[in-house]
Every structure is written in C-alpha cells, then in structure tokens.
Amino acid sequence: MRSLTVLIALGLLLAFIAWQARTGIFRRANPGEPANKYMRQMLEAQKLSEGDAAAIAQKWPEATVTPSGLRYVVRRPGAGSPPATGALVLAHYHGTFLDGVKFDSSRDSGVPFSFRVGAGEVIKGWDEAFAQMTKGEQRTLIVPWWLAYGVEGRPPRIPQRATLVFEVELVDIQ
C-alpha cells in the first residue's frame, strides 16, 4: 500500500511539473510571453506584418489567397493541364520586394529558369503556385515570408521575414 501511495505522489508531481513547464505559470521574466520556443514559434508563425498586409491589400485587392497564405493574380491564363509532381518546368520570373525594388530576374539573361515541381528545389510558394499553373500562364505571386526564405531570409539579398513578389510565366513543361 505504501509503494502505491509513493507512485501516485510521484505521478502527481510529474504531472504538475509537466503542466508548469507547458504553461510557464511560475515564470517571472517576461510574464505573458509563451514559456518555450515552440509556443513562441506557433504564435509568430504565418503572420504578415501590419505594413506588409496593408501594402498587399492596397496593391492586389483582387488576389486569390490559398490556405497556406500564398496570394496570386492570374495575368494571362494558360492552356493544357498543370505539371505533374516531379515534372521539369521552364519559367521566366521577375522578383521584387513589396516596395518594388528588384532582387532577381531571369528576364535579364533571357534564359528561363528550370526546376522540378514539388521536389523542394525552389521556395515553397513557387512549388505550390507552379503545381497549379498551365503552360503559357502568367501570374503575379505574392509569397509571404513563411513560403519564401523564412525568418532568417537569405542575407544580404533577401532580408529577414521578407514578403516577395514575383511576376512569373510558365514557359514550358517537360
């Protein structure tokens, strides 16, 4: 009987420790903040800054929003069916920040960029968008930071949490 009481007491103690660690109720530094980095990431995840959200709403009010947060405007419809996962696609792109400053473009060299759709060779926003596009289609993609280069960005060209805008054209599917 005594060992059962000890086991129950230890179980309650462990449950209390787990509850306290999860909630952070006894933390004194920064009260009101999440107790651990995982909770902070969940609260910060997939939110545009107020400035980015306002700029997007002003410039592209007609944009379609996918469940992941990718926004796009079809500029010219294409023909045929979308590429299969793993298909090689050729695409032209012109990449800018929300303020219109260019950071990259395939049109400068005149050579389309090639990659395999759904293989993780490009940012998540591109994989999602090109999987739905058809040959000849042109879109404006507004890619939020969590579907682009994430929290860290890609210094020095792409800053942290950068929302990117791409004018893309699906040239060919192979």
Description:
By secondary structure, the protein is an alpha+beta fold. It has two domains: 41 residues, no CATH class; 128 residues, Chitinase A, domain 3 (Roll), CATH 3.10.50. It has four helices and seven strands, in the order αααβββββαββ. Strands 1, 2, 3, 4, 5, 6 and 7 form a seven-stranded antiparallel sheet that branches. Strand 1 and strand 2 form a beta hairpin. The model has no long low-confidence stretch (mean pLDDT 90).
Characteristic key phrases:
4 helices; alpha+beta; elongated; 27% helix; 174 residues
Total strands: 7
How would you describe the shape?
elongated
What does the radius of gyration come to?
23 Å
Secondary structure tally, helices: 4
* Strand content bin: 15-25%
Percent helix, as a range, is: 25-40%
CATH fold label of the largest domain: Chitinase A, domain 3
The assigned structural class equals alpha+beta
Low-confidence stretches: none
Task: Please summarize the sheet with the most strands.
Answer: 7 strands, antiparallel
Secondary-structure element pattern, one letter each: HHHEEEEEHEE
Overall pLDDT level: 90
Span from first to last CA?
Answer: 73 Å
Query: What is the CATH class designation of the largest domain?
Result: Alpha Beta
Please indicate the count of domains: 2
CATH architecture of the largest domain: Roll
Topology:
Layout: H1 2-23, H2 37-44, H3 50-59, E1 64-65, E2 71-76, E3 88-97, E4 102-105, E5 113-116, H4 124-130, E6 138-143, E7 164-173
Antiparallel strand pairs: 1-2, 2-6, 3-4, 3-5, 3-7, 6-7
